TrEMBL record:
Name this polypeptide is given: Acetyltransferase
Key words of the record: Transferase
Highest taxon of source: Bacteria
GO molecular function: transferase activity
Length: 109
């Protein structure tokens, strides 16, 4: 994972057990967190107009992360991922910068 948050390079890595506590807090924690600021520690590059992630439908907890952070379900590709002898749908969640600002301003009122 890219530790330099000022670097626009994006690294994709699998979720590790040490990250689960943090992910749990995102999905089920409080609404007012500093990580939710677009210019905070996670969305700090003003170049980006959108944040998104793609997930396998079977990972309900990652779907919950998208929903709880205000991302919208933008797409579903049916039966595209094969894992453990089963085909799974792939889903995409995303949020635009202007949507994020509206969402976070409502949460801080």
């Amino acid at each position: 994972m890219n530790k330099n948050l000022n670097n626009p390079k994006i690294d994709i890595c699998p979720i590790k057990p040490k990250n689960l506590d943090f992910i749990w807090k995102i999905a089920y924690g409080q609404k007012e967190n500093t990580w939710m600021n677009w210019n905070g520690p996670y969305f700090n590059n003003s170049v980006y107009k959108k944040e998104e992630f793609v997930n396998k439908v079977g990972k309900k907890w990652m779907m919950r992360v998208g929903e709880k952070t205000g991302m919208l379900l933008e797409g579903r590709i049916r039966k595209v991922r094969y894992w453990q002898n089963q085909y799974w749908d792939s889903i995409k969640y995303g949020v635009l910068r202007e949507e994020w600002h509206v969402l976070t301003s409502k949460n801080h009122k």
